[in-house]
Design brief:
Elements lengths: L3 H4 L14 H33 L3 E5 L14 E8 L8 E4 L9 E11 L2 E7 L11 E3 L3 E9 L2 H8 L2 H23 L6
Antiparallel strand pairs: 1-2, 2-7, 3-4, 3-7, 4-5, 5-6
């Protein structure tokens, strides 16, 4: 069998021109930039939430029961903000510890308020409950935590993330992501 050059003596060798790699480099660069911006945004959001909690600007509570339906459903996260006790009004949704239960936080609507020389005593009721709560809570201090915003269904994610294997997996994923981004930044190729 003869080679192709012998069959076509006047033909030049075919040249295959390489496509410029600028498009591929541009896409990779855009993807890296986008991932860096997303990581920075998530880190900044986490820092803002933590600083706000440390400074006492807000707190979060996961709604566990259906006693506040339809306003707050199980799985919702209530964002609690501090409010002066003097501004407390009937109908507001507040978070408090019922008498004798320092580890339990209840989120219910204020049904009645009694202001005495010893402080403020409230009676509360869940929106879905037929009767008021059996206790009267004495509020201590000058502020009360009031539900100002809710985040629907985020509580399920919070509860899931509290499991030990999930927390370990999230920690490993975050550390791996940060280390790989740092190594990619350190070992990035120099521009031509």
């Amino acid at each position: 069998m003869s080679s192709g050059a012998a069959v076509y003596p006047d033909a030049e060798a075919a040249r295959i021109l390489a496509q410029p790699r600028r498009r591929a480099r541009g896409r990779v660069s855009a993807a890296k930039s986008l991932s860096s911006i997303m990581l920075a945004t998530v880190v900044l959001l986490i820092l803002v939430v933590i600083v706000g909690m440390v400074l006492g600007a807000w707190r979060f509570t996961v709604i566990d029961t259906g006693s506040m339906r339809p306003t707050l459903n199980p799985g919702d996260v209530g964002v609690l903000t501090s409010e002066r006790m003097a501004d407390l009004r009937r109908g507001q949704i507040v978070a408090f510890h019922p008498p004798g239960e320092p580890r339990l936080t209840v989120v219910h609507r204020v049904f009645s308020i009694q202001r005495t020389h010893d402080g403020v005593v409230i009676q509360t009721k869940g929106d879905a409950n037929n009767a008021t709560d059996p206790w009267r809570a004495r509020l201590v201090g000058n502020t009360i935590w009031r539900v100002s915003v809710k985040a629907s269904k985020i509580g399920y994610l919070v509860a899931w993330s509290q499991q030990r294997p999930v927390r370990l997996g999230l920690l490993i994923a975050i550390v791996t992501l940060v280390v790989s981004m740092l190594l990619g930044w350190i070992w990035r190729p120099t521009p031509d």
